């Protein structure tokens, strides 16, 4: 009686929850699907009662009967035909998209275009939203912990005379007064940091660190030092570090979510290498900070383009005549001097003109 | 380490695993996963994960039969949704009431062993072979000792006691793992673990010495030499950054060599049902080469060659993994328990834990 069904596929049948396997055929008889071995019916049921795993590549398919027993076969095409005979068009839709076909080239281009779009437009919006909803404790915590680890490694107490420190502090106050949050939002620290050379940097919580080497490099040109501090105030004011951290973290998260599995190596690079990149500012942020320095210097009644002299010293002493390149995160030094001077003149003009 | 060192004296037939997938087929699955994930604003990623795992499990074949991955897209999606909502809510509450952030942190720290145990159980229970599911019987306390105490011991001792910690973790995993009604058991020898520890440890020591040297050279050089990043040394690529990159490479290689060395030792000390011995004999430098070149190719092609890299690694791991079957496994029965929710697994996945089998 069993043999009057049509054989659909050959495979193995297994009782529920058991590893015992029996070579079997899947047959279709009227409205019943039947697993048959040597003329014996092992399991049967209507198509609607049988759970068939959706196709993925060419991995084996499993048909689970109501009693929990399973028929497994590698004959994917036969199962696809069976599924579509019973009106199951939708289940194979994703698989049909996935098949190797020129269409995949179009998909690849679509993915590249969408990825560029996300990077250019969606990521910046996400960063701005994240900055908006960040509670103030977060930049404070980042600032405090970064400073603590720098104190342990690169920073030593300043060796500048107390009088000089106080003089710079006194001139720093009017500079910070016009920045967002006012004087109280920024704290100036003097530190000796041989490894960093003549340097200044801003932490997200408004702490600014000025190295002894920079003060010495200025050779008493206090306006130039203030210009550099104006630049660093602007980084803190514009929350450039926080933005950069979010940009890097958001980028890593998007890659991991979208690509699904990028491999543990790439994941490490995204998370650890990302932390490294997060410490630098983008070229746009540097330019913004340069311009803001000019504004703050002017507002405090100092020499607006003093920062340009810092870049002139760098250019002269250290031979940095580098052009702005695609890869560098900083604008080239000569270019920075030019636009700082231009912007200072522009501001003067705006005052004199009307 | 050659296979002959690891082979037991007991006679049996070695069944090596193989991977039957190919990059051409997986590329289609991967690119459709990516496209649908973007188009659905990330929602499809749960179903994408299921298709990816089904492809890799379903193509990993041993003794003529493939593994099967049973988690559903809906399960993963709900797990991810809950984790996502949790993050949003805790963030909002921490903004309103800052100390809340600390409370949440402490709660998660306390709950971590439980999350790890649930996550391992989920991974085991959604995996089957020959119609029989795996299961995991480990306790939360066990996870606390094996994972948290273990990693603490390893880091406090600067990695000197890392083999001890690896032993705890793998004993926790395998001594609690069941294949149906058959238990796995492992007892990797501490001496064998230290033998695969020596080389990575030496690499880390050499890398650290070199970076200290580079650091001093850079310090001396900053006074005289050109450094374009004077204004913000926190910016751009200076010699310090190159030094850090170098350390990443040395540490990365050390990590790869250690990971595969431990896997070889542990698998080869593991039995199923007290007699069938697992085998892992991946040559360490070949593994490191596959892993590192995969990363380079993936990055250079902006991940378009990731499917190729993933299949290449799966194939490498499969052919270096096997089991020596002594006699017959007989009929294995599984009790088929509910896999539980995917929340803990997805949470740990998000936090970067990787406990895939």
From TrEMBL, chain A:
Pfam families in the record: DUF7092 (PF23368), Peptidase_M48 (PF01435)
Transmembrane segment boundaries: 104-122
Domain DUF7092: 9-86
One BP term from GO: proteolysis
Family matches, as InterPro entries: DUF7092, Mito/Outer_Membr_Metalloprot, Peptidase_M48
Cofactor: Zn(2+)
Co-factor binding details: Binds 1 zinc ion per subunit.
PANTHER family named among the record's database cross-references: METALLOENDOPEPTIDASE OMA1, METALLOENDOPEPTIDASE OMA1, MITOCHONDRIAL
Family assignment from sequence similarity: Belongs to the peptidase M48 family.
Stated name of the protein: Zn-dependent protease
TrEMBL record, chain B:
Protein name as it appears in the record: Uncharacterized membrane protein YjgN (DUF898 family)
Record's keyword annotation contains Membrane: yes
Lineage: Bacteria, Pseudomonadati, Pseudomonadota, Alphaproteobacteria, Hyphomicrobiales
InterPro entries: DUF898
Keywords from the named record: Membrane, Transmembrane, Transmembrane helix
UniProt key word Transmembrane helix: yes
Transmembrane segments: 27-47, 77-94, 100-120, 141-162, 197-221, 242-261, 287-305
Matches recorded under Pfam families: DUF898
């Amino acid at each position: 009686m069993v043999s009057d069904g049509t054989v659909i596929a050959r495979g193995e049948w297994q009782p529920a929850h058991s590893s015992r396997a029996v070579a079997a055929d899947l047959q279709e008889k009227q409205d019943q699907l039947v697993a048959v071995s040597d003329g014996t019916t092992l399991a049967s049921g209507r198509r609607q009662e049988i759970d068939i795993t959706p196709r993925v590549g060419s991995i084996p398919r499993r048909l689970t009967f109501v009693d929990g027993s399973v028929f497994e076969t590698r004959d994917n095409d036969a199962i696809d035909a069976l599924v579509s005979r019973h009106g199951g068009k939708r289940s194979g839709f994703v698989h049909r998209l996935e098949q190797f076909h020129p269409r995949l080239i179009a998909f690849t281009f679509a993915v590249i275009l969408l990825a560029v779009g996300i990077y250019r437009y969606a990521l910046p919006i996400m960063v701005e939203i994240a900055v908006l909803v960040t509670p103030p404790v977060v930049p404070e915590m980042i600032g405090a912990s970064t400073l603590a680890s720098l104190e342990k490694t690169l920073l030593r107490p300043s060796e500048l005379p107390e009088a000089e420190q106080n003089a710079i502090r006194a001139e720093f106050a009017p500079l910070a007064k016009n920045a967002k949050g006012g004087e109280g939002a920024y704290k100036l620290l003097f530190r000796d940091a041989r490894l960093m050379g003549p340097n200044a940097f801003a932490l997200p919580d408004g702490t600014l660190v000025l190295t002894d080497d920079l003060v010495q490099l200025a050779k008493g040109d206090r306006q130039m030092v203030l210009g550099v501090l104006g630049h660093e105030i602007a980084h803190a004011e514009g929350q450039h570090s926080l933005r950069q951290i979010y940009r890097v973290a958001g980028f890593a998260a998007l890659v991991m979510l979208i690509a699904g599995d990028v491999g543990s190596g790439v994941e490490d690079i995204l998370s650890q290498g990302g932390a490294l990149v997060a410490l630098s500012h983008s070229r746009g942020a540097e330019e913004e900070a340069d311009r803001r320095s000019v504004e703050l210097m002017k507002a405090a009644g100092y020499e607006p383009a003093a920062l340009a002299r810092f870049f002139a010293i760098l250019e002269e002493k250290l031979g940095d005549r580098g052009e702005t390149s695609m890869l560098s995160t900083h604008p080239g030094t000569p270019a920075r001097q030019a636009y700082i001077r231009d912007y200072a003149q522009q501001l003067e003009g705006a005052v004199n003109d009307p | 380490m050659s296979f002959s060192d690891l082979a037991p004296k007991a006679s049996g037939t070695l069944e090596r695993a193989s991977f039957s997938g190919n990059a051409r087929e997986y590329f289609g699955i991967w690119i459709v996963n990516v496209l649908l994930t973007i188009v659905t604003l990330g929602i499809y990623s749960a179903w994408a994960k299921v298709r990816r795992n089904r492809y890799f499990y379903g193509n990993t074949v041993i003794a003529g039969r493939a593994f099967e991955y049973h988690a559903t897209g809906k399960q993963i999606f709900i797990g991810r949704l809950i984790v996502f909502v949790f993050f949003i809510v805790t963030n909002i509450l921490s903004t309103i009431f800052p100390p809340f952030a600390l409370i949440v942190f402490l709660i998660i720290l306390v709950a971590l062993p439980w999350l790890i145990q649930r996550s391992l159980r989920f991974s085991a229970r959604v995996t089957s072979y020959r119609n029989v599911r795996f299961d995991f019987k480990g306790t939360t306390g066990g996870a606390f000792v094996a994972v948290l105490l273990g990693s603490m011991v390893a880091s406090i001792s600067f990695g000197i006691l890392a083999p001890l910690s690896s032993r705890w973790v793998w004993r926790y995993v395998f001594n609690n793992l069941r294949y149906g009604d058959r238990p796995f058991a492992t007892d990797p020898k501490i001496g064998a673990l230290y033998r695969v520890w020596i080389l990575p440890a030496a690499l880390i020591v050499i890398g650290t010495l070199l970076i200290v040297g580079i650091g001093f050279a850079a310090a001396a050089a900053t006074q005289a030499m050109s450094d374009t990043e004077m204004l913000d040394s926190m910016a751009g690529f200076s010699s310090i950054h190159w030094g850090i990159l170098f350390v990443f490479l040395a540490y990365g290689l050390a990590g790869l060599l250690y990971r595969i060395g431990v896997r070889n030792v542990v698998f080869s000390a593991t039995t199923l049902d007290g007699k069938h011995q697992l085998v892992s004999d991946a040559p360490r430098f070949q593994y490191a080469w596959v892993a590192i070149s995969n990363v380079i190719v993936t990055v250079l092609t902006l991940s378009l060659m990731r499917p190729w890299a993933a299949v290449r690694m799966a194939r490498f791991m499969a052919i270096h993994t096997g089991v020596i079957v002594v006699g017959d496994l007989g009929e294995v029965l599984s009790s088929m328990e509910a896999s539980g929710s995917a929340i803990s697994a997805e949470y740990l996945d998000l936090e970067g834990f990787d406990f895939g089998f």
